[in-house]
Amino acid sequence: MDHPLVVPELPAGEKFLLRPWRLDDVAVVREASEDAYIPLITGVPPNYSDAEGSAFIRRQWSKAADGVGYSFAIANAGDDRAVGQIGLWPGALGRASLGYWVAKSARGQGVAGTALRAISSWGLERLRIPRLQLHVEPWNAPSWRAAERAGFVREGLLRSWQEVGGERRDMYLYSKLISDRGSF
């Protein structure tokens, strides 16, 4: 893409909201940086400082400004406190990739599945992207269960697909198609 994108606010069920990142969201970036896994698979800084937290948020803004994709903070609808991140990255040939993480303090509340349903409906219906896909490590059952609850279908195992933490890892491939109308 060669033009800026606009990251909208999207309702995600009754309890959550997908919205643009704000500088006051650094608390969730700090919490995510303390997680053993999130910094390995994302741009979250592994050694948090206020400067690194602010830089992470500015990078999320630059993705839309540069036309690369949409990075949303996942926030509680009640107090607007950020609890995670979800992104949609349009690619070639009518495909887009999705990625997400949820801070430890917000896990077990259906955050990821609810956010995935919201962003996938938006991507398929509003942006008219024919195919959405995401990758999840086989051991990460909470993540792949969230994908399945959001209507994504496991297509297979990609062996040695991605480097994570200095080693090659297998990934499940999940997809959701514009033709999957009943699963929005």
Automatic annotation (TrEMBL):
<dbReference type="Pfam" id="PF13302">
    <property type="entry name" value="Acetyltransf_3"/>
</dbReference>
<dbReference type="InterPro" id="IPR000182">
    <property type="entry name" value="GNAT_dom"/>
</dbReference>
<feature type="domain" description="N-acetyltransferase">
    <location>
        <begin position="16"/>
        <end position="179"/>
    </location>
</feature>
<dbReference type="GO" id="GO:0016746">
    <property type="term" value="F:acyltransferase activity"/>
</dbReference>
<keyword id="KW-0808">Transferase</keyword>
<keyword id="KW-0012">Acyltransferase</keyword>
<dbReference type="InterPro" id="IPR051908">
    <property type="entry name" value="Ribosomal_N-acetyltransferase"/>
</dbReference>
<protein>
    <submittedName>
        <fullName>GNAT family N-acetyltransferase</fullName>
        <ecNumber>2.3.-.-</ecNumber>
    </submittedName>
</protein>
